[in-house]
Amino acid sequence: VLLSWQSGNSFHVFDQGQFAKEVLPKYFKHNNMASFVRQLNMYGFRKVVHIEQGGLVKPEKDDTEFQHPYFIRGQEHLLENIKRKVTSVSGIKNEDIKVRQDNVTKLLTDIQVMKGKQESMDSKLIAMK
Question: Distance between CA 50 and CA 119 in Å, rounded?
């Protein structure tokens, strides 16, 4: 058994190497466990870390557990809520872009003024020498 539902609100991958070699190529274009975990993270799945008696408990051998609030045995209607997280530029408001552009313009102007003052100081130093 490479994969198990034990509690009904998470799943376990018991042997990552064998899982990657035998299961992943059947459903993905790769056999890379790290890529699979990355995909899980993009859809909101999280690795379960067990904490007991104030310390981390080391998982048995190669057992890795993942869970998602909408991935529950017998609750198929919740699966539609599992969506890929999207980060896009469209989330930035035009006003924010305008403010950022104004800030950059001000910084560039300030730099030009400072350069002018530096050049003036340099010439005064040369004249004093």
Answer: 63
Q: pLDDT at position 54, please? A: 47
Q: Is 88 helix (H, G, I), strand (E, B) or coil?
A: coil
CATH class in words for 1-86: mainly alpha
For residue 64, list its beta bridge partners.
Answer: 13
| Two tokens, residue 108 | 């560039």
User: How many alpha carbons fall within 13 Å on the CB side of residue 123?
Assistant: 5
Predicted confidence band at 52 (pLDDT cuts at 50, 70, 90)? low
Residue 64 and residue 12 in contact, taking contact as beta carbons nearer than 8 Å? yes
Instruction: Show the beta-strand stretches assigned E in the chain.
Output: 3-4, 10-13, 46-47, 51-52, 55-56, 64-67
Average pLDDT over residues 108-125: 90
Q: Which two tokens stand for residue 7?
A: 């509690």
Closest CA to 68 of 2, 5, 1: 5
User: Average pLDDT in the 87-110 region?
Assistant: 73
51's tokens = 């904490």
* Domain locations in the chain as residue ranges: 1-86, 87-128
